[in-house]
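Q: My hope is that you can spare some time for a protein that puzzles me. Underneath my words sits a plain record pairing an amino acid chain with its backbone structure tokens. Those tokens are not coordinates but codes from a learned vocabulary of shapes. Thank you; the sequence and its tokens follow:
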Amino acid sequence: VYKRQLPDRNIHLITPPDWPRQGNLVATLPGHGEDAGAVLLLAHIDVVEANPADWERDPFTLIEEDGYFFGRGTMDDKHMAAIFVDIMLRMVRSGYQPDKTVRLALTCGEETPNRFNGVRYLLEHHRDLIEADFAINEGAWGVLDSDQQPVFHGIQAGEKTYQNYRLEVTNPGGHSSRPRTDNAINELAAALLRIAAFEFPVEFNTTTRAYFNRLATIKTGQEAQDLKAVARSLPDPDALARLKTNPLYNSVLHTTCVATQLDAGHAPNALPQRAAANVNCRIFPGNTQEDVRQALEKVVDDARIAVTFVDPPESTSPPPALKPEIIGPIEAISEDMWPGVPVIPIMQAGGTDGRFLTPAGSPTYGVSGLMVEPDKMFAHGLNERVLVHSLYDSRVFLDRLVKRYVGGQ
């Protein structure tokens, strides 16, 4: 039985005219405090494509089996969407009156931001509906060991900037039986090898330094020593060299650029008139996309190869601050639910919708209370899943956290 319900004026289904399949839902539960402010609960409801023929189960049917929920999006990011809807519904039905306004945004386009992104669209056209002091989003989770015991609980504060660059070289070409000394494919290949051999400088910010320091407390042996050594004001070069061999650590130590696609030639019996490659960069906060473009030009060192943006650069910002009023409730509730398990700040090497909100003035933090087996969640891959008991723990954690942030009764 519904005790209360949100009035229609507080619920907005927003579908851009040019994107009829990219609907976004925004709901608002007004705060009752004198200086209410607002907290945004953000989750994207679009998912990466899945080929049913490749999956062991139908990827678009939620299946509970062997202690897991299987299905595309169970990890990324429909579990948070479902939990946030549940939190708001229970607040409304119980007559809960928060001090701060609770905003809920379920958006599309997070997985295809260069075509359309719901958060970016809402900021441009309906900013008042999602204005908030800060937002809770995906981007971090807890990690379980091989015995399904929690090791740490993550909070994401900041992320690298995603940018694609196009490297292209053109050539008059000709008949393949009469090779030229200059060859577009060869020139491009040499440039890509130079990029592959190049390393951007190591950098740190408040989030990554805290990440290495706190992670060192739960690791052992040489790895723990190296984590401590790189977090110092003058990182130990030998420790850095060892940690860089781990893709996870390497991804948050500096800007990274890798070749991801090639497009060259027009016929098997002709010299190539054009050769192009996509180089995908994940840029450490504090560096601009133009800084990196110029760095790539310098590394390529070939005036015949153009280095250009594939998509216009997005706005950037420093990582949001780990303020006591943000991290304190996370640590307190985590300690109550998982005693002795540390909360560790994380800077995402991937991308979330926080990259639009944080520069727009709503600092965005990734925290979920979802504990995962890192080698079994398969987000974006086959047989995506979450642990059933962990999802319900996440529901409890986020319900308690949201109420701590918004107050009320």
About this structure: The mean pLDDT is 95. The two ends are 20 Å apart (CA to CA). Residues 262 and 277 are 4 Å apart (CA to CA). The first strand starts at residue 11 and ends at 14.
